[in-house]
Amino acid sequence: MGIGSWADSALAKSKNSGLGPLELRNQYPVTHQFLSLHPENTATQKKGKSRLSYHIAVANTFVNTQGHSKQITKTELQNGLTENDFYDDVNWTSGTDDKVRGFSLYLDAETTRHTFEYRFGLSDSLEFSLDLPFLSFGGGAMDSMIESVHDTVGVSNAEYRGAFRSFSEKNQYAFYVVRDGTFIFNSEENFNMVAAEPVIGLKWGLSDGGSVIPALSLKLAYKVPNSEREGFYKLTRSGGGDWGHYLILSKGYGSWLAYFGDGQTQIQENHNLAKTLKHRFMALEYRLGKKSSLLIQTVTQSSIFPKTHELRELEANQEQRNFNLVVPTNLFMGGYKLEWNQLFWEMGFAQDYANYGNETDFVIFIETGMQW
Q1: 335, 348 contact by CB (below 8 A)
Q2: Are 100 and 323 within 8 A, CB to CB?
Q3: CATH class of domain segment(s) 29-82+98-371
Q4: What is the pLDDT of residues 324-363, one digit of tens each?
Q5: pTM for the complete prediction?
Q6: Terminus-to-terminus CA distance in the chain, angstroms?
Q7: Handedness of CA 160, 162, 166, 170 (dihedral sign)
């Protein structure tokens, strides 16, 4: 089945821009406070046309870098974690030499990101956007399901591949990030529907492409800073004016479309984390009809955790344990998109297939809205 006519669409579409890709930003709990650009279509809203949507993403994340040594289990959580729980438990070091250089984590969270999104066509090739996000952090309810899936496929929840989940209570919330032996985040306070920082953007449709050349667009985005960061607000707001860009290409081949994007975010107030995030995605869309599609997608992002130093020979065991935190993340995504008259719908999931501890384990997301 071919692409068909886009005359009734509010988007300035071409044969090289379908319904995709899946529009999900990074959902890792540590990155929610920063700008993180997400995949988008190369098409823009037509001049004078608007689009309003609501996007919800629920993400389950569990990381225990002390799982190998069983330094952090249910008992330590009940007693309250301290920085000493993240020190190296070996007999050939003592005092400050016990500090694990680089990052150590105990993250047990289910996060929900609600985003109200507005798009407006300033011209047929220039689009303005405004995103208003709200965040909820808590224990959630997905732990049992994820551990059951692990059991079904033969992954032990008491080992690395199962993230040492069995050492902790189900559906609890804990957010601990340690750098060079010192807390930079330590919280067990749940919160619900807390406003994060708004994001404004511009997208230029540089080319519709042709039979050989792909469509090409450039997205620019800026996160408006909010300096109020007391208490749990420091997990939802960085207080910095982050900005970024995404160069997006798409190409149609009959009922199939391919997408590719490459971009970067500059973080103004990084709070001892990365100063730059690099983004890349590839997506494949199969058109079930003019108004519905199935999509698969891979997304990679540089780690929010930078390498902090050159490790000494004494610390080789520590480098091996936590090194994966600094490598790029990898997500596989699948989903479905539908347009019906002025309404549209997107639903899908994302799965971390690398299991390095610097990406959320599992995400389900839905977007719905209308355009006129």
Answers
A1: yes
A2: no
A3: mainly beta
A4: 888 899 999 999 999 999 999 999 999 998 888 889 999 9
A5: 0.89
A6: 26
A7: positive
